[in-house]
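[Meeting: bench + compute handoff]

Bench side (C.D.) handed over the final construct sequence. Compute side (W.E.) agreed to return the predicted structure before the next meeting so the bench team could plan truncations. Sequence as handed over:
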Amino acid sequence: MTQAPERPEASGAPAPDTRRPGELTARELLRWTWRQLTSMRTALVLLLLLALAAVPGSVIPQSGVDALAVSRWKDSHPTLTPIYERLQLFSVYDSTWFAAIYLLLMVSLVGCILPRLRVYLTALRAQPPAAPSRLTRLPDHRVLQVDAAPDVVLDRARAHLRSGRYRLRRDDADPARRHEVAAEKGFLREAGNLLFHASLLIVLVGFAMGGMLGYQGGVIVVQGQTFSNTSSAYDDFDPGSLFGSEDLDPFQFTVDDFTVDWITEGSAFGTARGFNARLSYRDRIGAPQDSYDLRVNHPLTIDSTDVFLIGHGYAPRITVRDAEGNITYSGPTVFLPQDQTFLSFGVVKAPGGSGGAVGLEGLLYPTFALQGGDPTTVFPALGNPLISMSVFTGDLGLDNGVPQSVYALDTDNATQVMQPDDPSKPVRLDLELGETEMLPDGLGSVSFDGVDEWVRIQISKSPGKEIALLGVVLALAGLLGSLFVRPRRVWVRTRDQDGVTMVEVAVLDRSGGADLGEVLDDLAAALSGHPDPVTQGTTGSAASRRDQKEEA
């Protein structure tokens, strides 16, 4: 027997699939990834991640909000600082990983909302579904005997359902459905769900606009000084990626006065009850001057910029003179509070006079007292102010062109001044208000002339905050709609049984868990024309089942 030759495969036949089970092509993998990203579960996970990612920005000082607090935190945590910097934890909201979560959430919400919106619009245009063949199989139903013609009963059903804002099915052209009425309502529940998710997208867009088109900055202003709104006047300035210095509102303000209402008795002794900074401001150059009492949580709004009061402290007025009496440094010096008692630290950098540069660093005690031989401050208000400072001379790095912090003294190339009669003990200046002390080695003198107060001001411009607020309001409205609107379907069918009109009524709550007894009672009363309709057989409503149990 000869073997038949194999037939050559047709040139147009598909190649055999050699993929392993479960292996996806590049296109299938992209489709699967897109479906996963745009699922509701992924959107909820990303929303939770965004909330968790914002926690470090509330706990860890942020460079765009308070660069001074960041500097102090780094000094206190030298080990953690490199790790935090690598993770961008000092600028959380500008970090790469926060932006990635933000953008993924926006894409997920858009991909989640659009298909659901298409399905919702299709359902909105569709008619309510026709009545099932056996209404008595539904959990909530009634069978009524009505003394009226079937057409009259159906007209009563339509009128009652229309008054309840149900949407009726149009079956006039279908003879098989002319003895039925089908109605549906509750489409606002899904509209509420869609509105809620769309509002989240609106909130994200509002925050994104504020981040790109706005800015945030901070500045310390001493009482009596004037601040002009230019980028160079800020202590720290964090503009958005699309914000330019020409977008700054041209206002200026002066801190005329600052008062603190301290609690002087009880368990809250030494705690501030309230703060008030009296400002005089102009919203533009040459404009009339206005005044405003700036308080915590009561910002001053100038055009589209908000001015907030977020902190305060003391600025001792210190004068340094050289050996010839020439003033080398004079004025209020900002000291930073170290604790709740407002024990404050600060430095003075006096350029070289006849005896060379002089540097001072030390503490301000607002209400100085000795307790057990140790210096302390017993109250945060100015009761008995005293400054206690160490003295340095030599190269303080003032002329090397390297930027320095005004709150730190570079003593690497400087020498601490020692007491002439005991070279092993450093000089310590302890000056009460109004005192002057001469420095050894012909360095001059230091005077403590008074204490001014300073306020820390945060200034921000957030163009998208109205949009974000609108999103929050819409989210609340959508949430209320999705919680309290119940989608329901109602069917009424009539039949003539030996000259008697029998009516089958059924109600379906699509959200589940509702007690539909009252709905059935109202509908039955409307169909029968009196409040106590005659029912036959077992009713399926929860209320009727309870009544039957009580009668039994």
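W.E. noted at the follow-up: The first helix runs from residue 26 to 37. C.D. will use this when planning the next construct.
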